[in-house]
Amino acid sequence: xxxxxxxxxxxxxxxxxxxxxxxxxxxxxxxxxxxxxxxxxxxxxxxxxxxxxxxxxxxxxxxxxxxxxxxxxxxxxxxxxxxxxxxxxxxxxxxxxxxxxxxxxxxxxxxxxxxxxxxxxxxxxxxxxxxxxxxxxxxxxxxxxxxxxxxxxxxxxxxxxxxxxxxxxxxxxxxxxxxxxxxxxxxxxxxxxxxxxxxxxxxxxxxxxxxxxxxxxxxxxxxxxxxxxxxxxxxxxxxxxxxxxxxxxxxxxxxxxxxxxxxxxxxxx
Length: 269
Fold this sequence. Notes:
The protein is mainly β. The chain has one helix and 24 strands. The strands form eight sheets. A four-stranded antiparallel β-sheet has the order 3-4-5-6, with no helix packed on it. The protein has a four-stranded antiparallel β-sheet with strand order 7-8-9-10, with no helix packed on it.
């Protein structure tokens, strides 16, 4: 698009009806990154974050463009990765020039050419149940250079306390290969909570965005931690009205957040 948001060009990359199929599946491109050397990389897969209510397909796609917006031929795809469930919901360039992609239940580490070097998942032993793997919503690079993953994990005592499964919001600092260096959770006991995004404020505190399982569901849940991401300093839920099927509702899902200036946080719903 130009500066006035007029579309200059548009391309199809999957169309089963007209036979245009550069990808193995229909996919939603979720993250667009301009690299330090001027390339543009888009990653995608299942629709974020629930696959439009269908079962997630364990599919991710990488499409690379040059600075003149032409697909340069580099298309990489991962379909049914054995032992992992991956989707291209987010992509970041690491300080070493590689890449980290996150989505579904895994993160993937890539070299400069987009060749995957490793996959990483975040599993733990849930009391009374066994091994469970966390849901990955996004991987982000913070303003101070640290990498963070956000999503959801089963509550540590949900089965022993309620005899049913429920989720906590979850976030961890991670390395450039995706391994986690910390483990933090928050939310309402016995309910389903989730984080969709995180961003670092100008004072180095960290803002998180997601849904908290209160009744009624008030939609947007924001909380801010100190710079270590350990201590929640404040949290708030917002009732923002919207229209769904012609009916007013207040359970809009907040999918991403960005710091746009020293005092303003922009939410995308």
